[in-house]
Amino acid sequence: MNVLLIGSGGREHALAVKLASSPLLETLFCAPGNPGIAETATCVVVDVADHAKLIDFCRINGVGLVVVGPEAPLVDGLADALKDAGIAVFGPSAAAAQLEGSKGFTKALCDRMDIPTAAYGRFNNAPKAKAYVRQQGAPIVIKADGLAAGKGVTVAQTLEEALAAIEDCFEGAFGEAGAEVVVEEFLEGEEASFFCLCDGTTALPLTTAQDHKRVGEGDTGPNTGGMGAYSPASIMTDALIAEVMEKIIDPTMRGMAEQGMPFTGVLYAGLMLTADGPKLIEYNVRFGDPECQVIMPRLKDDLLALTKAAADGNLVTSTLDWSRQAAATVVMCAPGYPASAEKGSVIRLPKAADLPEGVTIYQAGTAQKDGDLVASGGRVLNVTAMGDTVTDALEQAYRAVDMVDWPEGFCRRDIGWREIERETNRP
Ligand code: AMP
Ligand code: GLY
Known about the structure:
The protein is of the alpha+beta class. The protein has helices at 10-20, 51-60, 72-75, 78-84, 98-101, 103-113, 126-136, 159-170, 238-258, 291-295, 303-311, 390-401, 417-425, and strands spanning 2-7, 28-32, 42-43, 63-68, 89-90, 120-123, 140-144, 153-156, 181-185, 190-200, 203-211, 214-216, 220-223, 228-231, 263-274, 277-284, 326-333, 346-347, 359-363, 366-369, 372-375, 379-387.
């Protein structure tokens, strides 16, 4: 089968490597891809926003499955257009992608299906939102309703911060995404990411992972897309997974189907593990980045067969086979990230054969320029390793980080610290 992968980040590099290992694959195309992906797939220049052109490309090249990495094309209706054209697609419809595209939509679903989540209010003007915040007090969380590239959330420790965040939203800091604001109760606990493969009716749990969202060591400083991740996350016990399936995922799948918006693709639940049990912080409608980079290397099943089955509404497998090894990834970033990343610095990667065993460097924000590999985004490399434990995997990953010749790049040196503590204290 010929497959077209959509996207250009480290997540897509990890997906490309996994798809390429399938015996079912003939040719893997990626639009637009990146220099790392180009080692595994044929990168093509097709405007992903131009649905008619993309459909033409699929027809001309006999593409039997499109796998969509990022959320924006999904919210924009790419899956609907492909499906209407008779092309199998792994990813939700625009209607179902509202689970990520509109925080208010997800909150309303939680209400209707009795899914545990933070208490909240929804507002379309500043005075009402501010009155609610004054009444609730701080800490409190302010969220732009729509997609804001991970920047629309303020966890306000003080009333002043919360009021300023509300003003920012309504003054257009996040454009259209901030025309409506969700104000949420502040949840306390540890965060974990939980992923399922979905075919419209069935949700098949993938493994667990945790990422580090803050740019600074000790989980401090501004939020980012994710500075590193590891899998499995031992805090997600089998009992907790069963509880999340029963109280959060299954009612979501039912509720979406009842609304005529069956969910197909990856359902990614951001969870807060509170003293009152797991609560949904948010949904995403795609793999996490960099969580995907630690999930794919551990998956033993055929990703192409699984995504095709999900696209066809035919996910019959009831469990998946995972490596007993752990995986960890360290994200190397360009200077200035996340505020504004400096582009263009030259990166010299070690030869694959020189890397420690079990290490893969996925490329995220890279480009080729005058024969050099250069930084072209904020998060640039995902140095990923396998090991018997998360601690071992991280040791290998940092050995490989030190082999990357990129003086300008930086990374956190404490990825996985919670898991390392747990592994150290394990009897
Ligand atoms: P989101 O984009 O909704 O995942 O929010 C980004 C980050 O803000 C989350 O990963 C959490 O760290 C934090 N956050 C969001 N909502 C809450 C909440 N209700 N309570 C505490 N922290 C939150
Ligand atoms: N790592 C968080 C995300 O993909 O949204």
